[in-house]
DNA sequence: TCTTTATGAATGAAAG
DNA sequence: CTTTCATTCATAAAGA
């Protein structure tokens, strides 16, 4: 993939991706196509399983879900808590609400709520917010490479800060919250299925 | 995709979009998410229809089974920094100087210095030291504990990480062809969907 | 090719 | 809160 272009590859240079309008449009369509395919696959699946048991799919224990066959071999005891996609989703939402410091009581409440979606303790919640805050802050400071190109970068302004950057398949999905893509579904059944899908997928990596 | 190496937004009548790494990463994730969802939906569908013949999915065809083609590889081509020999050399030198904890400011300095030899970010430097320390320590402890782990771990087959990510983008396909991927009917067949996913997959790799 | 190894990155937990 | 550690995941590079 050669889409990467080093702009002014010099010291502390600003590195950006350059795309043509066509390429950009292609991406939009790409995502759109996936969104459509997903919806239809879900519909299809629902139709096919209407009468079926889905025996393996309703296991209470998420980690034993047969769907994980592809990625899960870690059914053994895990030493550290790993938020389920659903839990993460909720945590992120709460975090985004801005109420910075989750009070002691708040933590309790959250823990109880998340407990419905998987094992969790107050400490987990506490740590999560602790880390989330810290890392959120760090990331905010890092991307400030006060670009100063000693290089004779042609006087082209860093134009088009990719402003028209809107490729959400669903109008209500937020560009800066990938996780939301899992839940912002207009379809009830779809949403439910996605919950399982999330579990089945190799978590961690897709939810950062 | 051969990217325009010239970042000049409008030079020579060339219109391009400029994206930051973050934005590119976001797109990558969005597509990856959908690809994963599709993948899992397919798995789910297979599980439910194991008794069926899956006629349309015969492997006899020269083309890879759409199912495999799609689930085999992940559209997770995350780019990751790779230190140049020169950078590595400098990093090692600094590390050997023993000054254990590269303070925040120190990291900035190092980053700037290394930036002269290739793209790099503070995070990269930070991670490098983090890993370097951790692995340096581990290596020291490993030799001793010859504890034979009574690991009765099942014969565990290799995860056969289908890493065949060299999906060749349809070189001969033009952007307008993607329209063919759109689905008109909600009652499209399963195998047909798979076909579309496969195509979508290829397009994804084309960008990511 | 396919498999294995080395290592960049992500993150829960804990120390400071 | 900030910084560090430990573990794990994913991938680029190297090996077979």
Describe it.
Two copies of one chain form a homodimer. With 208 residues, chain A is mainly alpha-helical. The first copy, chain A, has two domains: 1-79 and 151-208, no CATH class; 83-146, Homeodomain-like (Arc Repressor Mutant, subunit A). Chain A is built from five helices and two strands; from the N terminus they run ββααααα. Chain A has helices spanning 21-49, 85-96, 104-115, 122-141, 188-200, and strands at 4-6, 15-20. In chain A, strands 1-2 form a two-stranded antiparallel ribbon. In chain A, helix 3 packs across helix 4. The longest helix of chain A has 29 residues, at 21-49. Chains A and B meet through strand 1, strand 2, helix 1 and helix 5 of A and strand 1, helix 1 and helix 6 of B. The structure holds a DNA duplex (16 and 16 nucleotides). Chains A, B: Residues 136-172 are annotated as: Disordered. Chains A, B: One of its GO terms (biological process) is regulation of DNA-templated transcription. Chains A, B: Residues 153-162 have a biased composition (Basic and acidic residues). Chains A, B: It comes from Glycine max (Soybean).
**Mean pLDDT, all residues of chain A:** 56
Q: Helix-strand pattern of chain A, N to C?
A: EEHHHHH
The quaternary organization reads as: homodimer
Distance between the termini of chain A: 23 Å
Most extensive interface: A-B, 82 and 75 residues
**Could you tell me the strand content of chain A as a percent range?**
under 5%
Please mark out the parts of chain A with pLDDT under 50 across 5 or more consecutive residues, or reply none.
1-16, 51-77, 144-208
- What is the helix tally of chain A? 5
* Sheet having the most strands of chain A: 2 strands, antiparallel
Give the tally of β-strands of chain A: 2
Radius of gyration of chain A: 21 Å
Global morphology of chain A: extended
Strand order of the largest sheet of chain A: 1-2
Overall tally of structural domains of chain A: 2
- In helices, the fraction of residues of chain A equals 40-55%
Strand-pairing-aware structural class of chain A: mainly alpha
Domain Homeobox (chains A, B): 74-139
Main location (chains A, B): nucleus
DNA-binding region (chains A, B): 76-140
Biased composition (Basic and acidic residues) (chains A, B): 153-162
């Amino acid at each position: 993939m050669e889409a990467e272009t080093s702009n002014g590859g010099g010291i502390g240079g600003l590195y950006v991706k350059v795309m043509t309008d066509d390429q950009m449009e292609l991406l939009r369509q790409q995502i759109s196509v996936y969104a459509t395919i997903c919806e239809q696959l879900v519909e299809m699946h629902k139709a096919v399983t209407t009468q079926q048991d889905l025996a393996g799919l309703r296991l209470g224990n998420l980690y034993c879900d047969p769907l994980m066959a592809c990625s899960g071999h870690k059914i053994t005891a895990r030493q550290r808590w790993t938020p389920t996609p659903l839990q993460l989703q909720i945590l992120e939402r709460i975090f985004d609400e801005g109420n910075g410091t989750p009070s002691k009581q708040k933590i309790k409440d959250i823990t109880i709520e998340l407990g419905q979606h998987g094992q969790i303790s107050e400490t987990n919640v506490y740590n999560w917010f602790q880390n989330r805050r810290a890392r959120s802050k760090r990331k905010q400071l890092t991307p400030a490479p006060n670009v100063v190109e000693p290089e004779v970068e042609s006087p082209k302004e860093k134009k088009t800060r990719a402003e028209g950057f809107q490729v959400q398949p669903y109008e209500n999905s937020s560009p800066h919250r990938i996780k939301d893509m899992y839940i912002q579904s207009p379809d009830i059944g779809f949403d439910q299925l996605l919950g399982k899908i999330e579990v089945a997928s190799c978590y961690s990596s897709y939810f950062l």
